[in-house]
Design a protein that fits this description.
binds 1-O-pyrophosphono-5-O-phosphono-alpha-D-ribofuranose; 9 strands; alpha/beta; 7-stranded mixed beta sheet; Rossmann fold; Phosphoribosyltransferase family protein; 30% helix; 187 residues; Adenine_PRTase; globular
Length: 187
């Protein structure tokens, strides 16, 4: 769909090894944000499959979603709402001002169980919601976000991510479109 952008995303991506004694490499997408061409094109590319669905708002989780979500929202002429992640080391749940709806995640790709929260006055009936994230693995965050949308009486239109690191059946269930499959980042 976006062959030039896909090539560029692959070339700017790195796996890094933060702990040589640890079992996992960690994805490093910081090169994406450093590239002006990617920064300009990634929002419209993620938004493209959802233009006719006319979302009113993009909902995206911390941390990368706080950058990607607004890029997609601008491309769609929609608003943006952050989903707060609680349970992160050092997080302070008191920082969220006002009543907030929470949803627990299943264990995610790191085995963590988190809570995702959205402020009640930022999402409600009449909203058509597009979910956005940089990476989808187990789908734990997206499932919790769909729960939040339902709890707020809003309507989901689907989900857009840079990388789908999940089986196609799960992507279909999550109504997920992605710019890359994780297998393209193997080298
Ligand atoms: O499909 P899942 O298993 O739910 O995983 C997807 C999540 O993993 C990444 O966040 P991560 O927690 O690694 O980093 P962050 O909290 O710093 O954004 C990514 O940004 C997604 O939010």
């Amino acid at each position: 769909m976006h062959p030039e952008l896909s090539k560029r995303l692959i070339s700017r991506f790195r796996w890094i090894d933060p702990d040589p004694t640890g079992p996992h490499l960690v994805s490093d997408g910081s090169g994406w944000w450093r590239d002006p061409d990617i920064l300009r094109r990634i929002g419209p590319a993620l938004a493209a499959p959802y233009r006719t669905a006319a979302p009113t708002v993009v909902l995206a989780p911390e941390v990368a979603g706080l950058l990607l979500g607004p890029l997609v929202a601008v491309a769609l002429g929609a608003g943006f709402v952050p989903a707060h992640k609680d349970g992160r080391a050092g997080s302070d749940p008191r920082r969220i001002a006002g009543p907030t709806t929470w949803a627990d995640t299943a264990p995610d790709h790191r085995g963590r169980v988190l809570r995702l929260g959205v402020r009640d006055d930022r999402l409600g009936p009449g909203d058509r919601v597009l979910l956005v994230d940089d990476w989808v693995s187990t789908g734990a965050q997206l499932r919790a976000l769909y729960e939040l949308i339902a709890a707020r009486g809003a309507e989901p239109v689907g989900a857009a991510a840079v990388v789908a690191d999940c089986p196609p059946e799960l992507a279909r269930e999550l109504r997920l479109t992605a710019l890359l499959d994780a297998a393209q980042l193997d080298n």
